[in-house]
Amino acid sequence: MKTKRETIEARVPKGEMRIVPIVWFGEGDRAVKARVVLDKPGSSAKVLCLFFAKKGKFDLHTEIVHDAPNTFSRTLIKGVLDGEAAADYEGSVTINKGAKNADADLNEHAILLSSKARANAIPRLEVLENDVKAGHGATVGKVSDEEIFYLETRGLPREEAKKLIVRGFLDSFVNEFPKEEAENIRAQLPRL
């Protein structure tokens, strides 16, 4: 099966907020490159990505460029992989000279539900200006046995406990998406 490739480019007007939503539910292999340039004072952007898959490969690259003062960005990626699904994420934030008071954060969090699922995350910051806020982080892990045990002691079977933890992990993030996109995601979540 051929990989579906997609490129997203955005420039944000002065003083405006742009949300860039990306969702993958394992429908074949997919590669997405998203680039957002904040070159107007006071512009801001959120790149939001949610993924859940039992098969297939997801390759995501994000790039945020702060090129003006008083800009703001958040890159938030959350996903769950089961079966033999794989996800590779590489994200970068660049704060160029002249982008004073820029505020940037990049985070990716993935949960693995099987021993064959895999996720890689490479977050990067390049800060070329003083007087800015910038942070990044990434976690890849499995649902802890303690969490499952706790729910089992409350009467939930093991598989239901896993599903509840996964839904809680993803559902809390869905509210960040634009309303129509959030409704589409919620319609897909019962399939988990």
Automatic annotation (TrEMBL):
It comes from the Bacteria. It holds the Pfam family SUFBD_core. Residues 26-169 form the SUF system FeS cluster assembly SufBD core domain. One of its GO terms (biological process) is iron-sulfur cluster assembly. InterPro entries: Fe-S_cluster_assembly_SufBD, SUF_FeS_clus_asmbl_SufBD_core, SUF_FeS_clus_asmbl_SufBD_sf. It comes from Candidatus Kaiserbacteria bacterium RIFCSPHIGHO2_02_FULL_59_21. This is SUF system FeS cluster assembly SufBD core domain-containing protein.
